[in-house]
Amino acid sequence: MSINVYIVRHGETYFNFLHRFQGWSDAPLTPKGIEHGLNAGKRLANIHFDGAYSSDLTRAIHTARYILKNNTAESPEEPTQLFDFREQFFGSFEGINGETVTTTLTAFKDTPFETYTNLITIYGMADAMDTIRQADPYHFAEDDEQWWTRVSRGFNDIRFRHKDGDNVLIVSHGTTIRGIAEKFGRHDFASEPVKNGAVMQLELDPHDAKIVRFNDDTTVF
């Protein structure tokens, strides 16, 4: 037995639309982003969630509310906010255009790459996070160890709050979801950009997790 965790990426924000690194910055959802939340809610409408959570950033909170608005299975009406499921903190790169950030990061690697996803594919998620920290002139950005210490604490919190067989909703963020996928053994998933409103389903065990599905924006559960 295990806890069934459904992790959803928040809906599109204006920073997403403008291709800017977002991290702990808090751009609002676009109209399309609101639809991402409502559509995820329709796909998850028949699941009774024993707990509903979001990161404490506005885009995740609002997306969780839109998901729960469409739930028909007596789930919580309001998400509990958990800091630990925030996005990676990008430090000095917050709000910067993605192409500009990628160009900066190439100076720190030997193998050339054209996009942030290429960086992850070639070097892995942990190395990508560490490179962002290294390239940040103020060293504000989280590295892999800092990020995973926080997120793994969040999973332990979920384990403490819930029992085997519970269904849990968490609304989180793209880089965090990719990082979780890699930590649980799926570098191939981590190399795939996460779609707004897409679901990663986990079977969360006491010390590990199995990924059941990833980046799913079509299944009606």
Automatic annotation (TrEMBL):
It comes from the Bacteria. GO terms for molecular function: fructose-2,6-bisphosphate 2-phosphatase activity. InterPro entries: His_Pase_superF_clade-1, His_PPase_superfam, Phosphoglycerate_Mutase. Keywords: Hydrolase. The keyword Transport does not apply. The record marks 173 as: Transition state stabilizer. This is Histidine phosphatase family protein. It comes from Leuconostoc lactis.
